Amino acid sequence: MQITIRGHHLTITPAIEDNIRLKFAEMTKHLDQVNSMQVKLTKDHQVDKRSRKGSLNHIAEAIIRVPGAELFAQATADDMYTSIKKLTEKLKRQLHKHRKMQVAAPSLMA
């Protein structure tokens, strides 16, 4: 499985890269059909006028390609690690639903 990690307006540190690889490997260890993953991390520099802070300005997006489907998720948070955690939770739900549909599909054809 190939994981591509890109950063937009931020540098991908080894700690962030290790965190992503660990979470995605953990998420897909029971699903061997994943062809590739693309993760894009973005930091939006827009400032909230009232608090003078960027709110929910760390964005994590991922595309997972499995046979017959392409899964996409996006998550935002105040820091990158939280947005990565939210992203993996969303993708876990999508992968679980996809796997459930794959198991149910052969029984429908019989």
Describe it.
Associates exclusively with 100S ribosomes, which are dimers of 70S ribosomes. The protein is α+β, with helices and mostly antiparallel strands. The chain has a single domain (2-109), classed as Ribosome hibernation promotion factor-like (Double Stranded RNA Binding Domain, 2-Layer Sandwich), CATH 3.30.160. Helix content is 40%, strand content 30%. Strand 3 and strand 4 (69-77) form a beta hairpin. Helix 1 (14-27) runs parallel beside helix 2.
Summed up, what is this model?
This protein is of the alpha+beta class. The chain contains 2 helices and 4 strands; from the N terminus they run βαβββα.
Low-confidence blocks of residues = none
CATH homologous superfamily classification = Ribosome hibernation promotion factor-like
State the order of secondary-structure elements, H for helix, E for strand.
Answer: EHEEEH
Physical arrangement of strands within the biggest beta sheet: 1-2-3-4
β-sheet strand percentage: 25-35%
Count the beta strands.
4
What is the tally of helical segments? 2
| CATH class label | Alpha Beta
